[in-house]
Each structure stands twice: as structure tokens, then as C-alpha cells.
Amino acid sequence: MNRLTAVSPAPHPLSEDDESLWRTATEVLDANWRTDHTVPSGTLYPHQWSWDSAFISIGLAHIAPDRAWRDLRSLFEAQWPDGRVPHIVFDLGVAERDYFPGPDFWDVPAMSGRPPRFSTGLVQPPAHALAAWEVYRRAPGDASAEELRRLYPRLVALQDYLIGSRGVSGTGLASIVHPWESGLDNSPSWDMALANVTADESLLLRYERQDLKRAAADHRPTNDDYARYIAIAATYRNGGYSDVDLVDRHLFVVECPAYNSLLGAAEHALARIAAVVGADPAPHRERAATITRSIVERLYDPESGTFRSLDLKTGKLSTQRCVNGLFPLILGDLPRDIVAQVVAEAESARFGINEMMPIPSSDRTADSFDANRYWRGPVWINANWLLARGLAAHGYAGHAATLRTAMLDLVRRSGYYEYFHPITGNGIGAGAFSWTAALVLDMLAEVGPRIGDPGTTRMSRTR
């Protein structure tokens, strides 16, 4: 396939600085392309990640729609018979020693025409229907409509799995069974639930961490956390990845507001996709409404004006204020009074929307805040991109524009990093990171933040 850098102009004139961003973002995605998918980075993450592929496809839609669709198709070719889409699809050409936990640890049987041990047994946030709809909107036409027709039943099967097999509470919400499934791996949001999981660091003598060979230890989850992650994953694996009696049998079972907000956004997107492919959109709209209602009833804390994760093993809400508590803003049918309270939380000193820095991953004022360590404080572009969409959808155009400007300035200053220091703006984690590059392309392609799919746009506020 031809290189992208010479054939992918921006859709409208850009400033000299933004033209440079467009070109270098394209180069990042080009360098990370692997025949039928894009890796998150060429060093730390040498396989295909689930929700990364969703964000990456949105950026690719602007420069290479065929690659955007191929990325999504490649991921869903690894879909399990029960509908789950694994959080990692392994490149079996990458040596086991180059990433842990790799295929041998997960020990997944052959299925769906794929070889043994081709994936993990976990899932990640269901951003894929939203991505498919965004790719279609950016690259409309018969070819994209046909891609939607192919993907639609697979996207529905994923939703059915999450709402059914993972719907422990029977309320329309999905539970996660590992912090890695949230995408916000070591967020303080999981601290209470993880406190009840024994940290056996002898596991790390048996299983050597590979991430610390490529990233600074104070930027990554601690050994204590990692030992818990391995114990939880091994328990799920040893149980055959069964979702029966999860609360009784599993070590970690949580309803996350970010995960379920994307679950609801997926149903809104599927309603739109259904109208294109000739399916009935009504069931998707009904499920979306149920999900929003349940998120409010189960995960909203009116005293703090934010959403929190719910530990299904103890029935307790997390006490931590984290960025996942802001994610319900992406739901256009979120009640207006609650929107105002969540925006106030985003405006507060805890998260502080301002022109200098995007929103951090956790409460800046909390004892748990760590400016360097993964999801315990740093800024992530994908989270802020989603929040900008949500703010725009609810009429907070000024806030959405502020986030867009802050994100682009941050990348322009520091580069396409995996995440960023929330005070200095320095890049942290993997460099040349694909979803950062992809979402920069999407922001540059728009005159302003695009209003999200769900709900009705309200009168603009610039508070």
C-alpha cells in the first residue's frame, strides 16, 4: 500500500504550524501500520489493542479510509463466538518475550478460524460503533456503507455480550472484570475494589514485567498493583473466561461510568448505523435510554456532583474523583441538571478546564494524585477528545473549544506521546503514539469540536 505522507492533504487550509502537525501525525500512523492494523506504538505496544483501534480509525478516516475500515475489520475478525472483542489481538510474529502478558499467559483456545492463543480473554471500552459511524461520516459513499453492513452484526453481538453476559446487575449496564478492561488501567477509581485482592508479588518472580524495560518505573503501575492485575487475570483465565456467577467467583467486578457511557454512546451510534444498513434503530434507542437512566440511578453521587465506579462485590461507590466520572457528558440524553453539575466538577480546581492544559486523569487535589503515573494524574488525549465532544453536544461550545486548543497546543509543544504531565505538559510513556496522532488529525480536520452523535444540540454556552 502507498505511503500516506505524500497523498493525504488536510481537508481545508491550515496554518503553517497546523500543517506541520498534520504531516507529522500522518507520519506516526504510517510508521505504526502493520499490514492490516495499526499498533499503538512501535515499541511498548507491538500488538493490536481494541479501543486504540477505534480511536485510530477515526483519524485514519481523514487520510486513508481504506486503512480505517481495515483496522476495524482486523479487530473484529478476532471476535469470540460469544460476541466479546478481545482487548489485545496478538501479532504471532512478535516474540513472547517482547510483551507481557503475552499469548502463552492468556492461553486462549483456537476459535473462529484463528490459531490458538491469538488474543486475550478480556475486553475494552466499546468505542467501536462510535468509531464506525465517525469513519462513515468522514468518508461516506457506497464502499463505506458496505463496510457498515459487514460490521453492524458484529457490533451488535459485542453489545449483546456486554449487556447480557456482563450485565451482572440486570440494569442494562456492563461490568468489567479487570482494571485493564476499563482502559484506565491503574486509575484511583479502582483502589477500593483492588484493596480486597491479595497482592502476591511472587507472581512477578514467575512472570517478568516487560513494560519496565521500555518505560520508567515511576510512570507505570506499581509492582503491588501489577501483582493484583496478574492474579485477577489468572483467575479469569483459570475459570475458562466464564462470566457465570461473576460476583461470587471473580476477584474484581465493577461498573465503571466511563465504560458504560461508551456502551450507551455505542447504542446511539448503532441507531444511526441501523438506519443506513436497513435495520430497525428503535431497539438501540431504547437500550441507550436504559443505559443512561441506569448510569444516573446507580453511579451518580449527588453530594459530589460526579459519577463514580461501583464495586459489585461490596455494593460501595468509589470515594475517588476521576476522569471517568466526567465521561457521562458524552451521553446527549443525560439530564440537564446533572450535566450542569458535572461541568461544574470539570471546572473545579480538581480538574480545571483552562487554556493551558487539558483535563487530568484524576483529581489534582487528592492524595492519590500522581502527575507521572499512568492514569493517576497525567493528561490523556483520548479522554479529552471525548469530553470535548460531550461538552459541545450539551452546548458548552466555549469549553469544548478550550479543550481542543489545549490538546493541540500540548501536542505541538511536546509531541505525540501516550500521555502527558498535567503540570509541565512534558510527554510521558510511549512516543509516536497512534491514537494521539489520529485524534490530532480529527481535531485539525474540524473547524471546531464536532458535536457528538447522541441527543439534541442545545443553545451554545460559553460560560
From TrEMBL:
InterPro entries: 6-hairpin_glycosidase_sf (IPR008928), 6hp_glycosidase-like_sf (IPR012341), Glycoside_hydrolase_63 (IPR004888), MGH1-like_GH (IPR054491). It comes from the Bacteria. Residues 45-436 form the Mannosylglycerate hydrolase MGH1-like glycoside hydrolase domain. The keyword Membrane does not apply. GO terms for biological process: oligosaccharide metabolic process; protein N-linked glycosylation. GO terms for molecular function: Glc3Man9GlcNAc2 oligosaccharide glucosidase activity. Belongs to the glycosyl hydrolase 63 family. This is Mannosylglycerate hydrolase MGH1-like glycoside hydrolase domain-containing protein. The lineage of its organism: Bacteria, Bacillati, Actinomycetota, Actinomycetes, Micromonosporales.
